[in-house]
Amino acid sequence: MILELAFIEVLPANHEAFEAAVKKGVEEVLSRAPGFIAVELQKGIERADTYNLHIHWETLEDHTVGFRESELFGQWRAIIGVYFANPPVVQHWSGLWRYVKS
Amino acid sequence: MILELAFIEVLPANHEAFEAAVKKGVEEVLSRAPGFIAVELQKGIERADTYNLHIHWETLEDHTVGFRESELFGQWRAIIGVYFANPPVVQHWSGLWRYVKS
After folding, report:
1. Which of B67, B8, B7 shows the shortest CA–CA distance to B37?
2. Contact (CB, 8 A) for B33 and A86
3. Residue A70 Cα, gap to closest chain B Cα (Å)
4. Is the pLDDT of residue B6 over 90?
5. Least CA distance to B26: which residue of chain A?
6. What sign for the dihedral angle of Cα A19, A76, A78, B44?
7. A27-48 burial string, b = 16+ CB within 10 Å, else e?
8. Is pLDDT above 90 for B87?
9. Alpha-carbon distance B4 to B56, whole Å?
10. CATH number for the segment(s) B2-86
């Protein structure tokens, strides 16, 4: 399990359209990608024009090779990319440990 | 529910000690903070000397006021802060939407 963490800046006039586009893009495209597990959309509190996407993949290559080199990637970016104010900042993270209050 | 996302750089010689310190600090201190829900520790793939902590709180103020102004904060930082190579970068995020592949 690998976490893709993407920070995406969106101008205020496009917030609502971007949020709707993410839902559409996930349901129609991203959810069909091999190795895709789950996604969360979050909005910044201090950085009010920045969203993040937490995308969980089975392996790093499911994202960096399988998805990015597939036709699905172009379709996904066509749906959400029009709302990007800047190129997104994307990095990957490996989960080490988790604690949940009982 | 609010996500605190903290990026923490740690020099390679301290990775193992830092990971152990996080577990100790969570179990002995952070887990006792009012409003604390869960935490995940992750390690960067591209940024191999950077960890992130995802800390889930019931409200923003549970972190920014309740925890940071309590004695627990000093105890937490005493356990993990010795391993910080730089001041951590901490921001808060509101969850909007989640999709899990069925």
Report:
1. B67
2. no
3. 19
4. yes
5. A99
6. positive
7. eebbbebebbbbbbbbbbbeee
8. yes
9. 6
10. 3.30.70.100
- Which architecture characterizes domain A2-50+61-94 according to CATH? 2-Layer Sandwich (3.30)
Q: Spell out the long-range contacts of A38-41 with Cβ–Cβ below 8 A and sequence spacing 24 or more.
A: A38/B98, A38/B99, A38/B100, A38/B101, A39/B98, A39/B99, A40/B95, A40/B97, A40/B98, A40/B99, A41/B95, A41/B96, A41/B97, A41/B98
Q: Which two tokens stand for residue A13?
A: 């006039």
Confidence band, pLDDT 50/70/90 cuts, at residue A102:
confident
Instruction: State yes or no: pLDDT of A67 exceeds 90.
Output: yes
Domain boundaries, chain A: 2-50+61-94
Which of chain B's residues have a Cβ under 8 Å away from the Cβ of A45? 2, 60, 91-94
Look at chain A and count its residues: 102
Within a 10 A sphere around the Cβ of A8, how many other Cβ atoms?
Answer: 22
Token couple for A14 = 């496009």
Q: Which residues of B touch A60 (CB under 8 A)?
A: 45
B93 pLDDT exceeds 90?
yes
CA nearest to B1, candidates B52, B55, B42, B47: B55
The C-alpha angle B86, B89, B94, rounded to 5 degrees, equals 165
The residues on B that touch A, with CB distances below 8 Å, are 2-3, 5, 19, 22-23, 26-27, 31, 36-47, 51-52, 60, 91-101
ipTM above 0.85, yes or no: yes
